[in-house]
């Protein structure tokens, strides 16, 4: 009861505060809309907004999936080979420290206005947390489990599949949850730079026409999208690693 | 038969070299229950891991049934202080793990797993996850797993030391019963004198720095043994006192 009620109360109070501020401070509509205005926009233009939400969601999901497909095997190499690790780890840290926003315009130059640059941007933001967490997970097999595998005559492959990888899964999911929180941001950044669809595109458009209610509606949908995706990853975690949950 | 022949082992650590074992010569007869006792750091685990083939000695060698040990053998099982159960596998799947890695016959392994779980009172818990079991039950599962492949040798490194005294005694008594049904050679490391006297045919008392054998004590108490009142309580007390003295510090002896 409290677990549902208190967060809802928090949201309600924030919205009430926003509304109150708009009225008390006499802020103009075109600067900050009131909650009913945002709701109105959502209700009136839901079909279009939903379409753009789906565009952003689909870009995000593809980028995130690609980050898993590329990141996990990369982490396996990093954890498995000392030489590979020494060779690419410093490079990885350097590349990760680059502001990825700076790459977005170049991606548009290379790949145009379609989904391509958005997917790559999501991939760029998601790749590192997934690689770092998975590598850490694969390297943290307890000593007695490693010795058990050896004493049971398990080969390298069997040791990986039956011992190291399952052991690493809880930490892999730490990385996935960090990544999915960044994923939507990546898609929106890429949409800002050049797009003809998606919630980021809507926000840019509404800025140009001073339709702040529409921009706020898009932001509401963006956060809903982030929350849904985060809980989807959490659900996958519950299903795949039920043994790791406490209680 | 296990023969340990002039085994030395040195670890190269940050603080220089540590001579963990020096000049160990020891023979364990087939079917014997041997316990190794000694204070912490005297090289018991190191010696056991060398016998298991998990560690190669700096010099000397271990021969099991005429064959020098170079790597872990299929007919030697190891049981650790921590249960080392895989937390994502059910009790039954944990016990069946050696069947996968050693490619045992699946049907026979399942039958045997069922028997072992029954023998250790775990029949109702086959589907449970390790985290749902008490520490004593987890060690029972680890014991079943170690016995699944019907090993000729079972090496146990302080397997009960993390358990409370009563559970420990319970498991020791269970282990004696299991032992009567197998023809397995046991090497059992402990720092508990009670456990050593309860279980062993012979107790090897080790000394530290460098790790070596101080004395071998024969436990001539008939089985089954328990720690309660029984006909041989006097002899048990005598042996315990002797071991106690051997284990206390000083080089007076
Ligand atoms: N991997 C290692 N590296 C360096 N020193 C070690 C290592 N393992 C054990 N030692 C040292 O070897 C000695 C014997 O250790 P160990 O066999 O674990 O003793 P025990 O099991 O009797 O407590 C100790 O002094 C310990 O510090
Ligand atoms: Mg030890």
UniProtKB/TrEMBL annotation, chain A:
GO terms for biological process: transmembrane transport. It is found in: Cell membrane. One of its GO terms (cellular component) is plasma membrane. Keywords: Cell membrane, Membrane, Transmembrane, Transmembrane helix, Transport. Its main location: membrane. The chain crosses the membrane at residues 5-25, 61-79, 91-113, 119-138, 172-193, 213-233. Belongs to the binding-protein-dependent transport system permease family. This is ABC transporter permease.
TrEMBL record, chain B:
InterPro entries: AAA+_ATPase, ABC_transporter-like_ATP-bd, ABC_transporter-like_CS, ABC_transporter_ATP-bind, P-loop_NTPase. PANTHER family: ALIPHATIC SULFONATES IMPORT ATP-BINDING PROTEIN SSUB (PTHR42788:SF13), TAURINE IMPORT ATP-BINDING PROTEIN-RELATED (PTHR42788). Pfam families: ABC_tran (PF00005). Keywords: ATP-binding, Nucleotide-binding, Transport. This is ABC transporter ATP-binding protein. GO terms for molecular function: ATP binding; ATP hydrolysis activity. SUPFAM superfamilies: P-loop containing nucleoside triphosphate hydrolases. It comes from Kineosporia babensis. PROSITE patterns: ABC_TRANSPORTER_1 (PS00211), ABC_TRANSPORTER_2 (PS50893). It comes from the Bacteria. Transmembrane segments: none annotated. Residues 2-233 form the ABC transporter domain.
């Amino acid at each position: 009861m409290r677990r549902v009620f208190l967060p809802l109360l928090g949201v309600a109070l924030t919205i009430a505060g926003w509304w109150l501020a708009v009225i008390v401070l006499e802020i103009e509509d075109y600067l900050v809309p009131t909650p009913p205005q945002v709701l109105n926009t959502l209700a009136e233009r839901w079909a279009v907004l939903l379409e753009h939400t789906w565009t952003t969601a689909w870009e995000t999901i593809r980028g995130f999936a690609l980050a898993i497909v590329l990141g996990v095997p990369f982490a396996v190499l990093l954890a498995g080979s000392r030489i590979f690790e020494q060779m690419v780890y410093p490079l990885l840290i350097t590349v990760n420290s680059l502001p990825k926003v700076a790459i977005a315009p170049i991606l548009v130059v290379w790949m145009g206005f379609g989904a391509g640059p958005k997917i790559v941007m999501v991939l760029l933001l998601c790749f590192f947390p997934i690689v770092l967490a998975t590598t850490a997970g694969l390297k943290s097999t307890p000593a007695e489990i490693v010795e058990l595998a050896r004493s049971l005559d398990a080969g390298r492959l069997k040791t990986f599949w039956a011992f190291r990888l399952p052991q690493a899964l809880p930490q892999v999911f730490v990385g996935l949850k960090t990544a999915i929180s960044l994923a939507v941001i990546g898609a929106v950044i890429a949409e800002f730079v050049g797009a003809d669809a998606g919630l980021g595109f809507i926000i840019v458009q509404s800025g140009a026409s001073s339709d702040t209610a529409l921009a706020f509606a898009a932001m509401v949908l963006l956060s809903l999208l982030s929350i849904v995706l985060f809980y989807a990853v959490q659900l996958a975690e519950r299903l795949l690693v039920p043994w790791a949950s406490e209680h | 038969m296990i023969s340990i022949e002039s085994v030395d082992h040195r670890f190269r650590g940050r603080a220089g070299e540590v001579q963990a074992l020096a000049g160990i010569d020891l023979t364990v007869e087939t079917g014997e229950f041997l316990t190794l006792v000694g204070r912490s750091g005297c090289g018991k685990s190191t010696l056991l891991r060398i016998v298991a083939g998990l560690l190669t000695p700096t010099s000397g060698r271990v021969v099991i049934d005429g064959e020098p040990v170079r790597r872990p053998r299929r007919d030697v099982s190891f049981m650790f202080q921590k249960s080392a159960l895989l937390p994502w596998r059910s009790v039954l799947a944990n016990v069946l793990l050696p069947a996968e890695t050693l490619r045992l016959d699946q049907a026979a392994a399942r039958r045997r797993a069922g028997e072992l779980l029954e023998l250790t009172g775990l029949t109702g818990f086959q589907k449970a996850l390790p985290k749902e079991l008490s520490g004593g039950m987890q060690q029972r599962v680890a014991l079943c797993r170690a016995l699944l492949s019907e090993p000729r040798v079972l090496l146990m490194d302080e397997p009960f030391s993390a358990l409370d005294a009563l559970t420990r005694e319970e498991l020791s008594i269970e282990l004696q019963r299991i032992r009567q049904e197998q023809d397995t050679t046991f090497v059992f490391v402990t720092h508990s004198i009670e456990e050593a006297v309860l279980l062993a045919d012979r107790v090897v008392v080790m000394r530290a720095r460098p790790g070596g054998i101080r004395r071998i004590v024969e436990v001539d108490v008939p089985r089954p043994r328990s720690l309660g009142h029984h006909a041989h309580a006097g002899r048990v007390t005598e042996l315990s006192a002797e071991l106690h003295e051997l284990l206390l510090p000083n080089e007076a002896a």
